[in-house]
Design a protein that fits this description.
By secondary structure, the chain is mainly alpha-helical. The protein folds into two domains: 2-64, Arc Repressor Mutant, subunit A; 71-191, Four Helix Bundle (Hemerythrin (Met), subunit A) (Up-down Bundle). It contains ten helices and two strands; from the N terminus they run αααββααααααα. It has helices spanning 2-15, 27-34, 38-50, 71-80, 84-108, 111-122, 128-139, 142-158, 166-177, 181-191; strands at 54-57, 61-64. The chain has a two-stranded antiparallel ribbon. α5 packs antiparallel against α10. It is elongated and about 55 Å long.
């Protein structure tokens, strides 16, 4: 029964337009709105909290958490990435999504986004994840950002990204400032060679 309640809670979150950081309705209100028993709601909330999708703050209530980096990623990674083929496919998919986000960022990057990227690049040594988070946000495609976050979570559960030279970030930032997708792709492939896992 609680599995169905999970689906209902998800629908309610979407309908109410709740985002990470927002407070969920109380257990009693959820039970009333969903037309289910409080015990089913309690079980569903426990499952969501175990997976790190919600956080209960004593005396305050229950809040939605950001997707990515939570326990669900590590649990799924243990089962989905148990062989080298799956890990190779993950690396391939992540690389392709990142390149697509980079090209979109070149076309859509705002001045504010460029300022955030420049600030990130100035922090030496530059950390790839926050840098690319800014690139992904500049691409302005919510679904691709969510996919990238999940893929990054899976990848970090296997192995962290290897450090990249400062020149990579400097050259990429220059290409983004020029709004030049071809130059950005060339820098990307020069510093991050394609891991395409299936050859003809």
């Amino acid at each position: 029964m609680y599995a169905e309640t999970l689906k209902h809670i998800h629908r309610l979150v979407v309908e109410d337009g709740l985002v990470p950081g927002d407070k969920l309705p109380s257990e009693r209100e959820l039970a009333e709105r969903l037309g289910v028993g409080r015990s089913s709601v309690r079980e569903a909330l426990r499952a969501l909290e175990f997976l790190g999708l919600i956080e209960t703050r004593r005396g305050e209530g229950t809040y939605l958490c950001e997707v990515g980096g939570h326990q669900l990623i590590e649990l799924l990674a243990m089962f989905l990435l148990e062989n080298e083929r799956a890990k190779a496919d993950l690396a391939e998919t992540k690389w392709l999504i990142e390149r697509l986000l980079l090209e979109l960022a070149c076309l859509r990057c705002s001045e504010d986004a460029l300022e955030r990227l420049e600030k990130t690049v100035r922090q030496k040594p530059t950390d790839f994840t926050p840098f690319f988070q800014a690139v992904a946000e500049a691409a302005d495609n919510y679904l691709l950002i969510r996919i990238w976050r999940a893929l990054s979570g899976f990848a970090s559960a296997c192995a962290p990204d290897r450090p990249l030279a400062d020149s990579f970030y400097d050259q990429l930032l220059a290409a983004l400032k020029k709004r030049d997708p071809a130059e950005a792709a060339a820098v990307w492939e020069r510093h991050r060679p394609s891991p395409l896992s299936k050859q003809n």
